[in-house]
């Protein structure tokens, strides 16, 4: 017995336990203990000198919270910390997530007339996450098309020409597919030659361009023909998949696993780099 500690004590004083400090990541699903709000991280920024995080719930509604204590991650209490510097840790000091040399002190250029078009929001978010630094230096904007069925009309409205080039990244661009026929029709239209470049990857959806090992799996699940692919993927992972919001939150979790170009398949990397070169080389 330790007689030096003998005497009255305040038994009501709680024992303080050091909570794990977890850097916030986009796509991370958190619960704010005080309000009960549950959502995926969609944005982290500084406001009024402090870091705040935006959490989007299953219904697409978003609320902002200050980083720190009061969050649950997978049921565990954590201290939510500012995001860790990703590019320096994963690709080496002075490099962007795409692996290119970071330009110190370079401000984003005013957006040029040239554009990169991708099929949907998820494609745009993936390109932005990996190549965003490079594109801001070049002044190139990425825009989602929400499908390519009307690509010919959209290209005609864009009126491509010298100094106004267009690069299009298409899902599932394989021989004899609907996508390949649309691409051929567009490239035969007036003004397309030399001013429009259409490239694509072989995957059903851009989700598959994330390397399976990054997600801790050996291969992407096979989804039966006739079943919605994204819904099937989320169901195979055991994630919620019944609503549009479930699909959005599922994608944020997948996107959160992507750190650098090394987390993506080479068949996507080469096509994006080809488009960037096409739009930036005089």
Sheet of most strands: 7 strands, mixed
Q: Give the H and E element order.
A: EEEEEEEHEHEHEHEHHH
What is the strand content? 15-25%
The geometry reads as globular
Tell me the distance between the termini. Answer: 82 Å
| Uncertain residue ranges | 1-11, 86-93
Class from helix and strand fractions = alpha/beta
Describe this structure in words.
This protein has 282 residues and is of the alpha/beta class. It is 28% helix and 20% strand. It is built from seven helices and eleven strands. The protein has a seven-stranded mixed β-sheet, with helices on one face. The longest helix has 18 residues, at 121-138. The chain is globular. Residues 1-11 and 86-93 have low confidence and may be disordered.
Secondary-structure blueprint of this entry?
Elements: E1 21-23, E2 29-32, E3 38-47, E4 50-56, E5 62-66, E6 71-73, E7 76-81, H1 86-91, E8 115-118, H2 121-138, E9 141-144, H3 151-158, E10 166-170, H4 178-187, E11 196-200, H5 229-237, H6 244-256, H7 266-280
What's the short version?
This protein has 282 residues and is an alpha/beta fold.
List keywords for this structure.
single chain, four-stranded parallel beta sheet
């Amino acid at each position: 017995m330790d007689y030096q500690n003998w005497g009255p004590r305040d038994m009501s004083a709680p024992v303080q336990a050091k909570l794990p400090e977890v850097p916030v990541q986009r796509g991370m699903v958190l619960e704010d203990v005080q309000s009960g709000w549950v959502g995926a991280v969609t944005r982290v920024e500084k406001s009024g000198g402090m870091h705040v995080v935006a959490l989007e719930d299953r219904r697409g509604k978003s609320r902002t919270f200050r980083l720190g204590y009061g969050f649950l991650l997978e049921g565990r209490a954590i201290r939510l910390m500012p995001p860790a510097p990703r590019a320096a840790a994963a690709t080496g000091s002075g490099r962007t997530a795409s692996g290119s040399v970071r330009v110190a002190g370079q401000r984003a250029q005013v957006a040029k007339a040239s554009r990169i078009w991708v099929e949907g929001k998820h494609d745009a978010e993936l390109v932005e996450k990996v190549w965003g630094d490079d594109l801001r230096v070049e002044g190139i904007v990425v825009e989602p098309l929400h499908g390519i069925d009307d690509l010919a009309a959209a290209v005609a409205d864009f009126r491509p020409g010298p100094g106004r080039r267009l690069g299009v990244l298409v899902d599932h661009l394989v021989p004899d597919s609907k996508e390949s026929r649309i691409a051929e029709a567009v490239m035969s239209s007036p003004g397309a030659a030399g001013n429009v470049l259409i490239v694509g990857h072989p995957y059903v959806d851009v989700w598959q361009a994330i390397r399976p090992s990054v997600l801790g799996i050996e291969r992407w699940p096979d989804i039966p023909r006739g079943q919605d692919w994204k819904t099937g993927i989320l169901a195979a992972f055991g994630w919620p998949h019944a609503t549009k919001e479930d699909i959005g939150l599922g994608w944020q979790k997948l996107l959160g696993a992507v750190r650098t170009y090394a987390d993506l398949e080479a068949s996507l990397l080469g096509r994006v780099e080809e488009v960037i070169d096409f739009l930036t080389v005089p």
